[in-house]
Design a protein that fits this description.
By secondary structure, this protein is mainly alpha-helical. Helix content is 62%, strand content 0%. The chain has six helices and no strands.
């Protein structure tokens, strides 16, 4: 199998999605933010099952589950998990099958998205946006 040809939106769309993801997750309070993102990371480890690498497809969910479990206590492990997932995305883009059969560049887009959210988690997933009612409470309203 050959990599899908890429268009500008194959880069821009996932990048915008990653920025939106970080913005929305910035609104989620702790510790729910870390727990929710651990669940998302663990779920993402199974998206490529039957993705073209045969029994090798089973290696990533095992590794991903262990890293996600550590992510329950550390954002850094969530960030590492997304970087490893980005590598798996790249392998599927180059040699395997896309995540979505109807979108040949979907594994590439996932790689862009995962690579962009990982540094935010490695930095401790700081809030960039304040929740509206928290901002009002801080202002004394």
């Amino acid at each position: 199998m050959h990599p899908a040809p890429l268009a500008v939106m194959d880069y821009v769309g996932p990048a915008l999605g990653a920025l939106l993801f970080v913005a929305v997750m910035s609104l989620v309070v702790e510790p729910t933010r870390r727990t929710l993102n651990t669940i998302i990371l663990a779920g993402a480890s199974g998206v490529y099952l039957s993705g073209g690498f045969g029994l090798w497809e089973l290696t990533y969910p095992v590794i991903g589950a262990a890293i996600a479990f550590r992510g329950l206590r550390s954002y850094r492990f969530i960030g590492v998990g997304w970087l490893i997932h980005a590598c798996w995305d790249l392998a599927h883009h180059l040699w395997g099958n896309p995540i979505w059969p109807f979108m040949p560049s979907s594994a590439f887009g996932c790689m862009i998205f995962d690579s962009m959210i990982a540094p935010w988690f490695l930095a401790g997933a700081p809030s960039f946006l304040k929740r509206p009612h928290a901002a009002m409470r801080a202002a004394g309203a």
